Amino acid sequence: MQFTKRLFTAAIGATLLAGASLGFAADKKVVIGYQTDALPSSVAIANGDFAKATGYQIDFRKFNSGADVFAAIASGDVQVGYVGSSPYAAATSRGLDVKAFYLASISGTDEALVVRNGSGINSIKDLKGKKLAAAPVSTDHYQLLALLKSQGLTEKDVQVFAIPQPEIVAAYNRGDIDGGFVWDPALTELKKNGKVLITSKEVAEKGAPTFSAWVATGAFAKENPAFLKAYVDVIEKYSNSFAKDKAAWGPESDNAKTLAKLLGGTPADFSAALKNLNLVPLNVQASDAWLGGGEKSGVARILKETASFLKEQKKISDVLPSYAAFVTTSALGGAVVAQK
């Protein structure tokens, strides 16, 4: 009888302990903002791999631009987000405490200025007097303005509309604008009735480099380091798959179909868009060229250069002495050790 009682008591204790563990797991929640860019890791949003690997309940929310993501972060609604370097520079210059923990991509051919057929634009020299558009405070907006400046042009010479990408596509198709600096799926849509005038990579080579990154609030990064490391591991899993097994990401692949269903578009469009990405190996991310190096960090340098340009363009009012505090290598694991 005493044995039965002890067994019953132990069983109850185990049940309560399990319940407590489940309760703790249920408390591990995070809201993550993503965008419509074609990234291999977006498949993990759709199939739940991020949640499985981290053990967190993740509420993924889709945004039209990095500026929108940062607005949600500033309001406290989002703790982790996918953003471009221009809105990142603007947000940190205004005092938002965020840290880039993974470099998603750098200036490539996945973003470009597309001009409409019949617009009369055949070269950069033809931009004067035209109407162009880009998403507000996006990397594309920044690069469009930088491109104009490199040609001795200002917004007095070229009308620049800062509007969301869906509106850019609609205005372009109506003939209201002559071109747009965009990323996918808008990039694919604009190319159906136009041509690429210049890519993000080419603008970067002219002196205006950009990047896209995953960022977390300073508080979340400090309190959840294991989550960020697990999150990075999942991104790397899909990036490595894309790099090593192209067939698994072809137009008829399950991965391409998953991206199309999640982000909107066709599997063929996303399969093609993925080929335009300029991904950075983890060991290179950990180097001074990008996330490593503190004050020497390439990301910190680009943020400051971008902020200086945005202030010159009267888009922000202040430039910080340093942007090193907004970059971390803590989630990169062994790649950081390899750099030492």
Automatic annotation (TrEMBL):
The keyword Signal applies. Keywords: Signal. Residues 29-253 form the Solute-binding protein family 3/N-terminal domain. Residues 1-25 form the signal peptide. It holds the Pfam family NMT1. Its main location: periplasm. It is found in: Periplasm. InterPro entries: Peri-bd_TauA (IPR010068), Solute-binding_3/MltF_N (IPR001638), SsuA/THI5 (IPR015168). Belongs to the bacterial solute-binding protein SsuA/TauA family. This is Taurine transport system substrate-binding protein. It comes from Rhodoferax saidenbachensis.
